[in-house]
Amino acid sequence: MIKDEIESVEKASPDLVADRTEQLRQLFPEVFSEGRVDFDKLKVALGEGIDTQSERYTFAWAGKRDAIRTLQTPSRATLIPFPKESINFEDAQNLFIEGENLEVLKLLYKSYYRQVKMIYIDPPYNTGNDFIYPDDYAFPLDAYLKLTGQVDDNGTVLTSKLDKSGRFHSAWLSMMYPRLFLARQLLQDDGVIFVSIDDNEVHNLRMLLNEIFGEENFVANIIWEKKYSPQNDARWFSDTHDHILVYARNKETWRPLLLPRTEAANARYVNLDNDPRGPWKSSDFSVKSYSAKYDYPIQTPSGRIVHPPESRCWSVSKEQFERLVADKRIWFGPNGNNMPSIKRFLSEVQEGMVAKTLWHREEVGDNQEAKQEMKALLNGLEVVFDTPKPIRLLKRMLQLATKSNEDALVLDFFAGSCSLAQAVMELNCEDNGNRRFIMIQLPEATGDQAFPTIADMGKERIRRAINKLQQEKASKLDFSASEPSDDHLSFRVFKMAPSHYRYWDDRDGQDVETYASQMALFVDPLTPNWKAQDVIWEVALKEGLGLNAHIEQVSGIDGNTTYRVTDQDTQQSFFICLDDVLKQETIKELGLTKDQLFVCRDVALDDELAANLALQSRLKTI
């Protein structure tokens, strides 16, 4: 009976409800009764009276319960590697994942919980022509397989012509809710999310983000000037802007970084009086907050007596003013007859600039610039996106959220053509940064033979951006030792696929033969024609290792073929052998210790070997 007591490997993504319930138990053990949450006790523990009234402020829509249900349904999918579609797969730190983003986010949850520094997404705007992700709440992986043509289905619809009735607002919110919820779980405590949206859904998106992130973690609503030319055929106003909503995971611990100073900003500083401290600019010497102590007459060098403007006072006391005059920090104009102003020296200002909430196209680019960037990189491809994002816009977000000297992980799970991936790599090359990216994109059909899906377009854009940056790097005469390594000009491709673990399908309407065939689960839990590398990656992911893990073969000459899998970030590792029979010589050669995880197939063990392995190591079986 020893084998019955051995722990099995994880066969699905983590149960979010169980995980959150356990976190709640650690914080409030007193609110649990018979293993369940007593919500009245929880309210009391949080200092709230028990409200018996039916009316309260809430945000709801048709389908919200189903959206929560699909969030709570563990994924039974997996991710398999495609080295041939990658660049320098073995050493790459960047990731491109082809698959339905909700299922992929569930798969990443255990490995990347609180590991992401910045998220940027550009989701469907729900304008009436957008692709709608058809989440199947009971069997979400089946919906993905039908959508991508991996199962036989007569006609896969990739776009929906929508009207703008309330049910489509609800469908959009139901699509966004579970994805944003998981996104928050992946963010670091000092992480931040930027979400692009237009006027059509900005109000609903803000309410949704308030619910998931907390209204107190709202940071800003940035207005981006997305185009220059007005639409003369507009019935009301010419729409020239989009919104970028910014939320921190914890606003108290996140602060935007300063933006690099621009030449235009520095040009505002001049040296009108040849001050040895260098260029300066003057600013108002009066303030609105009136104080009688700071209301005093000032005599200008020309002899004129001046007072603060009405309802205002000077910004410093008379004594401090006299010290500033002595230090030549007060400017009265070229003729000494102007109202006083204070000199701010360029040499004394902070190294960067505080970001504003209005981003002009001259500063960060517009849709037209983004389209030209794509055409230049993809050989004149006609852009299939209505509002593509320029690289300069994405770089600004990266500059606000990530430092060049930190190993920041950046995520985009509506990756599109992977503009953000290009922005990450370019910025790394500019400031010797160590940022890494994870791009997630559904293989949505484009109708273009060169790039049949948007995922194909995204992968090719990353490849061509890497080639472009490598050529620019090679053309430099001076190679700096501090330049980013080739690890940052490479990426791994993974694709979502059905799990290699067979599981019991309990849907209604199945015949006796179907049930009988499922009994094979108890003979071999792996699906037919499985590949060792793919199974190893599935085990690694569901055991919590990242997709940058390294797999090395450690035995296989005389004994079993055994691999060691190591997460390069956490150094978490395990050994795995998938042979039909496990030999004693292999176990001896590995020299396992009690804290090391060893994974093998259940059929490879007899009771004696299972008992020995369980004593030597942490044993899990498939």
Describe this structure in words.
This protein has 622 residues and is α/β, with parallel strands linked by helices. The chain folds into 4 domains: 11-71, no CATH class; 76-259 and 353-498, 3-Layer(aba) Sandwich (Rossmann fold); 263-350, no CATH class; 512-621, no CATH class. It has 18 helices and 27 strands. It has a 10-stranded mixed beta sheet with strand order 4-22-5-21-20-6-7-9-8-19, sandwiched between helices. The chain has a 6-stranded mixed beta sheet with strand order 1-27-26-25-24-23. A 3-stranded antiparallel beta sheet has the order 11-17-16. A hairpin with a 2-residue loop joins β2 and β3 (36-37). α4 (101-112) runs parallel beside α6 (166-186), α6 (166-186) runs parallel beside α7 and α13 (419-431) runs parallel beside α14. The longest helix is centred in the C-terminal third of the chain and has 22 residues, at 454-475. The two termini are 17 Å apart. Residues 155-167 have low confidence and may be disordered.
Short description:
The protein is an alpha/beta fold. The longest helix is centred in the C-terminal third of the chain and has 22 residues, at 454-475.
